[in-house]
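README: folding subset

This subset contains proteins for which both the sequence and a predicted structure token string are available. Records are stored as plain text. Below is the entry for Diguanylate cyclase (GGDEF)-like protein (253 residues), shown exactly as it appears on disk.
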Amino acid sequence: LSLRTDLQRALQEHEFRLQYQPLVRLDTGETAGVEALIRWHNPARGLVSPVDFIPIAEESGLIVELGQWVLETSAAQVAAWRRTHPDLTLNVNVSGHQLVHPRFAANVTRALAVAGLPSGAVTLELTESVLMSDPDAAVASLASLRELGVQLSIDDFGTGYSSLAYLRELPVDELKIDRAFIARAELTGEDLALVRTIVELGHILGLRVVAEGIENAAQLEALRRLGCSYGQGYHLCRPSNPADIPQVLARRS
Ligand code: G
Ligand code: G
Ligand code: MN
Ligand code: NA
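--- output ---
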């Protein structure tokens, strides 16, 4: 069976699951939100990484349906967790193919309405490369999404080709520093200076800045000292099954 045919079947047979990775406030150590991350458990193939199946889902167009499932499932899950943690927010990764779909805004609205999750609790993550492949079109789609009240994030920042001019024009709320900048080393010297510069750039533009890929205590401490507001990474918490999240919400990192 080709991966493409198998994906369609997998969606019908409920082989996809979501894990959630906390976004931690670095000043208090509290979990502010969670990022939904898709997983495919296939009896024959085992656990397949989204790195391998998302591109195929994009080529075949299935990403629209799959992305909608992610949105609906994660919105319902976070709405449930908000009964005990009312300020918890949700980050969802969105593919460029979803962004340009004419009904994307309507689909987002419907998913959130069904789940009973306020749009202000949701941040849609788009990669820098998607935004920069057609910046003028991106600005237009992002503006219409933002009218719904959802927030927008630039994921994997620093790996694409953002021009500073466009960065200023993009209607976004959050910038996620790609883990390549964080996990490279002990975060000293040039690496540290580079990350400090990105944090400052984000703050100058009025954005929430999230450092991804924090893997050790030294990196965490360095980012706290830089005044980076949020962090994510294995050292704080691995992507986790939904059943394990309530105990994560109860503790501080
Ligand atoms: O979780 P993991 O490290 O395996 O994720 C690998 C890649 O898959 C990351 O780039 C991540 O953004 C992407 N990814 C994970 N979940 C989703 C999803 O629901 N939709 C899209 N479009 N990408 C996702
Ligand atoms: O592209 P995106 O940033 O959405 O990718 C998120 C993925 O990064 C997660 O799915 C997760 O599996 C992975 N990830 C999260 N924290 C860490 C980390 O500390 N180190 C590494 N190497 N990967 C991480
Ligand atoms: Mn992401
Ligand atoms: Na990222």
